[in-house]
Amino acid sequence: MPFTVTIDVSKQFETSASPEQVFELLADVPRSASHFPDVEKLEPLGGNTFRWITERIAIGDHTLQQTIYACAYRSDRAAMSVSWTPVEGEGNARVEGGWRIEPARTGTKVQLHTKGALEVDLPGFLQFLLSPLIELAFTQKIDRYISNLQEAFEKG
After folding, report:
1. pLDDT score for 121
2. Sorted alphabetically, which Pfam families does this protein's record hold (predicted)?
């Protein structure tokens, strides 16, 4: 019987880029997604809604499953925020979250909060073993994503 792994991540960083530059990149979903590791395909579904198809999760020498989900995105320039909500019935995961962008003394403070639930199509008895490894794999991807974004912001 499949099991669900829930992931809740909050990260923040500062960049010397202006709040406007940060907002422009994060509000442009395809451009922002191009910095996320292991995205096999980002499919536009219309209305600023996208389906994410990632490469299969690998833990050690074992390849698990591919993660597929869709989100509707909303950007608010006045509030300097970008948020996303899950599209029901799409894929094997639900992801929601948002970016908050604030001016800082030397540039911009950027905050990310995202929550996800991934249905893992493996026997439930493996949940105890695999859940922490899957959480770690996704957290590492988010860390690489933030690192890639920071690099892009610094390049201008």
Report:
1. 86
2. Polyketide_cyc2 (PF10604)
Match domain 3-155 to its CATH number in 3.30.530.20, 3.40.50.11740, 3.60.21.10, 3.40.50.2000.
3.30.530.20
- Please, are residues 25 and 135 in contact by the beta-carbon 8 Å criterion? no
- Please tell me the distance from the alpha carbon of residue 140 to that of residue 36, in angstroms, as a whole number: 11
For residues 2 and 127, what is the distance between their CA atoms, to the nearest angstrom? 9
DSSP H/E element including 60 = none
Task: Count the neighbouring beta carbons within 10 Å of the beta carbon of residue 119.
Answer: 15
Residue with tokens 């880029």: 17
DSSP β-bridge partners for residue 50: 44, 71
- Cβ(75)–Cβ(98) below 8 Å: no
84: left (phi over 0), alpha (psi -120 to 50) or beta: beta
* 83: nearest Cα among 42, 111, 46, 52: 111
- What are the backbone angles phi and psi of residue 22, rounded to the nearest 5°? -65, -45
Low-confidence ranges of the chain (pLDDT < 50): none
